[in-house]
From TrEMBL:
<protein>
    <submittedName>
        <fullName>Uncharacterized protein</fullName>
    </submittedName>
</protein>
Length: 155
């Protein structure tokens, strides 16, 4: 009797694995009209997207978003692009290539790490995407042709 029960449970487990694998495999992902594809990192910073693996913080905000404060406490500020370009002209760039072969430019101001740019961009070609007041200064997101490629913290 115990033998048949063991065999039955083993067969049931095997069917569960097979049907679970078939159910989990959806093939090549296609467009999903229920997911808003136009969500930007700024929307994440404002708590309007699914960041950190889809986990939202209590209160509707994304926990930190790399800004040093909770997103519910962020204040977007306007900043003069000429002031940002002047600041970028004063930073030194330490360039390296990560293990994936992507160029990363580490921005250093007066010996302190203040930001980075992912890609081989000339800093003078970057535009201001958005700026946020943080506890440590103004964090400016830098964009190239409308796509965010890095940030700099202006103290």
């Amino acid at each position: 009797m115990k033998k048949w029960l063991g065999i039955g449970l083993m067969v049931l487990g095997l069917f569960g694995l097979v049907f679970g694998a078939v159910a989990a495999y959806q093939g090549v992902p296609g467009p999903n009209p229920e997911v808003e594809r136009g969500t930007t990192p700024m929307a994440y910073a404002k708590g309007c997207g699914h960041a950190n693996g889809g986990m939202m913080a209590a209160g509707g905000g994304v926990p930190y978003m790399g800004l040093g404060v909770k997103s519910t406490n962020l204040t977007e500020v306007s900043i003069d692009p000429a002031e940002v370009q002047d600041y970028l002209g004063q930073v030194s760039v330490e360039e390296f290539t990560n293990p994936r072969g992507v160029t990363v430019q580490k921005l250093v101001y007066d010996g302190d790490y203040v930001g980075k740019v992912v890609g081989d961009y000339d800093l003078s070609e970057l535009d201001v995407y958005a700026a946020y007041e943080t506890l440590n200064g103004v964090k400016v997101f830098l964009a190239y042709e409308g796509n965010i490629v890095g940030f700099v913290l202006m103290k």
